[in-house]
Amino acid sequence: MTRRKLGQLEAETLAVLAGQDRPVTIPALLEGLVGPPARTTVHTVLARLIDKDMVKRTLQGRRYMYELTVDESELAAEKMFSPLRSANDPTLVLSQFARGLDSDESEMLRRILRDSPETS
Predict the structure, then answer these.
(1) Which GO terms describe its biological process (predicted)?
(2) What's the sign of the alpha-carbon dihedral 10, 56, 38, 40?
(3) Which residue, of 17, 24, 57, 92, has the greatest Cβ tally within 10 A?
């Protein structure tokens, strides 16, 4: 069995939580993870995500319930901003990104840029 990096497990955990319509327990979360890691590992990941204010934990009866505190679109956008902002040539990064879009995604991006108010 290959071990996932904690960053990857954090991303997978966030994705599982984003797919839920209500708070979930750790056993329910484990069911959503592929090749579930050890329960203690999930506890560690959840504690880190709570520290980052991305997940909250509430006590319901005798069980803790976990849910996202951020919007899934915010998470995805942040993943896109990080490499763009740290690149030596952000124009080249954006160009590569745009060339990788399919026609529907390209049109969606054009529409978003056209309809977005100018920022100064």
Answers:
(1) negative regulation of DNA-templated transcription
(2) positive
(3) 17
Sequence-ordered list of residues with C-beta below 8 angstroms from that of 55, at least 6 positions apart, any chain: 13, 14, 17, 46, 49, 66, 67, 68, 69
- Please say whether the beta carbons of 32 and 16 come within 8 A: yes
DSSP state of 55: E
The partner residues of 64 in beta bridges, in order of sequence, read 59
Ramachandran region of residue 115, left (φ > 0), alpha (ψ -120 to 50) or beta?
A: alpha
Question: φ, ψ for residue 29 (rounded to 5)?
Answer: -65, -45
Can you give the length of the chain in residues?
120
Q: What is the pLDDT of residues 74-114, one digit of tens each?
A: 878 877 888 888 999 999 999 999 999 999 999 999 999 99
